Amino acid sequence: MGRTVTYSKKNLVSRHRGTLPILLTCPHDGGETPANVRERTKDRTPDDCTGANKFKAGRDVALAEITRRVAQRMYEVWGESPYVVIAEFSRKYIDANRPSRTANNNCAFVDKDARKFYDEYHKRIRIYTDHILTNNTTGFLYDMHGTGTIESDPADIYIGTKNGDTLLTGFNRDDLFKRRGLVGLLQAARYNLGIFGEVFKFTISPANASTTETGQVNGGFTVKHYSDRLNCIQLEVASPMRNDGGKKDILVEDLAYTLVNFTKQYTGL
Q: What is the pTM for the complete model shown?
């Protein structure tokens, strides 16, 4: 019987307790309706939450699938799995990647009955962060997201660290772009597609250490909030990658290998 990553679920949050110093989080691909919770609307959300690119209720389609498949592939190859936290509730009701402040000043939801679902998601992240740091000197949180095509900066995968601000002191952002860095490993991948010998390779943004991250995908609440404890990196997968079955398969395989091989350089795996 093959190795299988299993999940439990509470308050519409799926979770898997792993052993690798890697935490995969996925806040925006849920489709379930939390009981007695009103939908979020822009007019019921505080003004400072609703600026450009801030109020969104859409789904990052296929990201939960990708997250689960990446975790599964890690387990099959290395015999160990990452920690995983996935929001199963719809973003229409709760945005787990926004701050929950006070009852009357809240970016994440508009209904008090949403609190237990939102808190469950972040409580599980905190617990798994504790687990990782109990057994390792450091670890990495990869927050999985989806984006449409960004015309001013077309890419397959966008890396977001707030230009290094979500990385721990002592971790150099430039290391992401080394040959065996996160970006370097993804850029090195090559695949022959189709009968005409078309070669596919990932386009990564930013492509090098001297390039500034694209503002709309350079890191949100989750990577900022947990960056005092883990190296936190937001991974945005463009919709053409998620909508193409063949390329999605390639993405899953390469993310699994890349995240483990990159992470183990800095965590003593």
A: 0.96
